[in-house]
Amino acid sequence: MDFAMKRPGKCPGKIRALFFHRQAESDSLLEELADLQQQISAINSQFDILTDEELISACCFQMKALSTRYDRLLREARLRGLHQEPYGLPPFSSR
To answer: Is 22 or 33 the better-scoring residue by pLDDT?
Structure first.
């Protein structure tokens, strides 16, 4: 804090830039989580109407991949202290 008071022209701008950079990263993370939720929902809908065994198998692999990525991003968001509804467990979970 003393450093910021001694050099008022230098430090506040850097702090402000760091804050906005972290805010942009957080917004990006939340947007990616929302996008993954939509993709998981779409895959679940597709899974319900498929009849071909190979397509069902491919859909299962895609569900697993999306769910794994969603879980990783959700952990990262929690570590950053981000909270926004409706983030929770995705419709399909690897647990």
So the answer is: 33
